[in-house]
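Ops channel
N.P.: pipeline sanity check, posting one input/output pair.
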């Protein structure tokens, strides 16, 4: 069965999803399909009053349903049914995800959807396996650390991988017994709305999952500043993360998880499997057209093998073919908007004007929609804009080194520390440099996440606070209380 579809005939969810039902709303923000630039609809913007309604719905649902206090295995079973429904509805979910996002439909069923379902099952199993602890105290007392759900979690997800990011937020929060009010990106809301509908069908009580549409300035600010939001979880840019922290500080202190920007290095030594390394580097910057916070956008390669690695990367870049996300044969993503494509090009042209050599790309692809050619910039320095700034597009810079110390100096970034790649056959070097790399995730002889959901993800420096995925994400959605009882 083909996954390709006609975007003009796709039935889209409409409105917000509050209290277990769709709430109609007038569109405000123009929406364009990045694959062809067609304006197809307008996204509603939830006001502060509507956000308040959604949060009130979440609080009422928690009180009425006992979601936070039921037998933990009950939550596990419901979330497992939710994951099953995602897989059963994979075709429709893939089409809703691909319709106005940058995600090619052919990559979604076995990729994003399957992985998200796995993650939901992973977090579901924590519900009855992580809890309170007895701790050693004096013989005349009993010490306990009790664990409880926070209450209502406010979540904001980005546009680049909408379904996966919604799963990152909803999975651990729901398994931990919380309700959630989530704002997806105003550019890509449809798959998130649909999985909220599936959650209710699976048995999640109506009102436990609420989706409000809107922009950051109005809707996002209302969520993160609301006094009844007990915890905030956000994935997006470093600038937006800073604004959220400021808003939280103004309205009352509460915990926050932030997964923010990155400018990740990929360090390749001459003793590495060079074909493996070059293909990992290329895949990282070509996947989703580089629109990922962990994109390995800085190639740092030992000088004596640089030419060979660069040639392989260039070959991969030259073989991409642009195509709409609703065509199952398409593998190369458009840029999310014309504005973002213009920003990418501005950084590239600034780097070229400053002396960088453009070995590939350097401009838009002649195709309907917002496609940008895979670009490789050589001859850049540490103070180049292309090296300093998160471009969020298919732009790779290349720098060379002659020894380990120079490699580490080039790899270190003054602002970001989200991820890093290291390619070498020398185990001692790998362990030594893994300790030195200032990044929340270090991949050795690969550059990608696996389906080992136990590994958390999160950044150093201004790349974030706290962790998504792993046990850490579940625990971040529980609060603890120390209890000491005299016997």
């Amino acid at each position: 069965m083909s996954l390709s579809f006609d975007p003009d005939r796709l039935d889209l969810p409409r409105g917000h999803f509050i209290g277990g039902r769709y709430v109609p709303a007038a569109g405000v923000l123009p929406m364009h399909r990045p694959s062809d630039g067609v304006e197809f609809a307008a996204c509603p913007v939830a006001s502060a009053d509507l956000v308040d309604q959604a949060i009130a719905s979440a609080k009422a649902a928690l009180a009425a349903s006992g979601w936070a206090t039921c037998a933990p295995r009950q939550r596990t079973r419901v979330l497992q049914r939710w994951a099953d429904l995602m897989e059963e509805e994979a075709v429709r979910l893939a089409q809703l995800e691909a319709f106005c996002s940058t995600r090619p439909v052919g990559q979604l069923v076995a990729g994003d959807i399957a992985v998200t379902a796995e993650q939901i099952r992973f977090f579901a199993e924590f519900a009855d396996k992580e809890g309170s602890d007895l701790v050693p105290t004096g013989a005349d007392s009993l010490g306990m650390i009790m664990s409880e759900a926070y209450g209502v979690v406010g979540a904001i997800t980005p546009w680049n991988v909408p379904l996966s990011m919604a799963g990152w937020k909803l999975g651990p929060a729901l398994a931990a017994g919380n309700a959630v009010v989530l704002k997806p990106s105003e550019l890509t809301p449809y798959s998130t709305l649909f999985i909220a509908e599936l959650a209710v069908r699976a048995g999640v009580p109506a009102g436990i999952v609420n989706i409000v549409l809107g922009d950051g300035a109005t809707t996002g600010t209302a969520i993160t500043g609301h006094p009844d939001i007990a915890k905030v979880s956000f994935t997006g840019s470093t600038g937006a993360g800073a604004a959220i922290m400021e808003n939280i500080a103004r309205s009352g202190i509460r915990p926050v998880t932030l997964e923010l920007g990155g400018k990740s290095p990929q360090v390749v030594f001459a003793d590495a499997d060079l074909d493996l390394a070059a293909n990992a580097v290329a895949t990282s910057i070509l996947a989703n057209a580089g629109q990922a916070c962990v994109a390995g956008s800085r190639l740092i390669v030992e000088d004596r093998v640089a030419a060979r690695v660069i040639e392989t990367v260039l070959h991969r870049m030259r073989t991409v073919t642009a195509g709409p996300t609703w065509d199952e044969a398409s593998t190369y993503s458009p840029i999310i908007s014309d504005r973002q494509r213009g920003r990418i090009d501005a950084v590239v042209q600034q780097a070229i004007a400053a002396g960088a050599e453009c070995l590939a790309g350097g401009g838009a692809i002649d195709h309907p929609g917002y496609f940008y050619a895979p670009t490789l910039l050589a001859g850049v320095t540490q103070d180049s804009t292309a090296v300093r700034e998160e471009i969020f597009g298919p732009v790779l810079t290349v720098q060379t080194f002659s020894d380990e110390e120079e490699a580490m100096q080039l790899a270190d970034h003054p602002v970001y520390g989200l991820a890093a790649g290291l390619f070498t056959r020398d185990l001692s070097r790998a362990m030594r440099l893994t300790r030195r790399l200032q990044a929340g995730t270090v991949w050795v002889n690969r550059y990608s996440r696996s389906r080992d959901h136990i590994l958390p993800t999160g950044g150093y420096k201004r790349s974030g606070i706290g962790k998504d995925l792993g046990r850490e994400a579940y625990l971040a959605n529980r609060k603890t209380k120390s209890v000491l009882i005299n016997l």
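N.P.: looks fine end to end. The chain has two domains: 7-260+464-486, 265-452.
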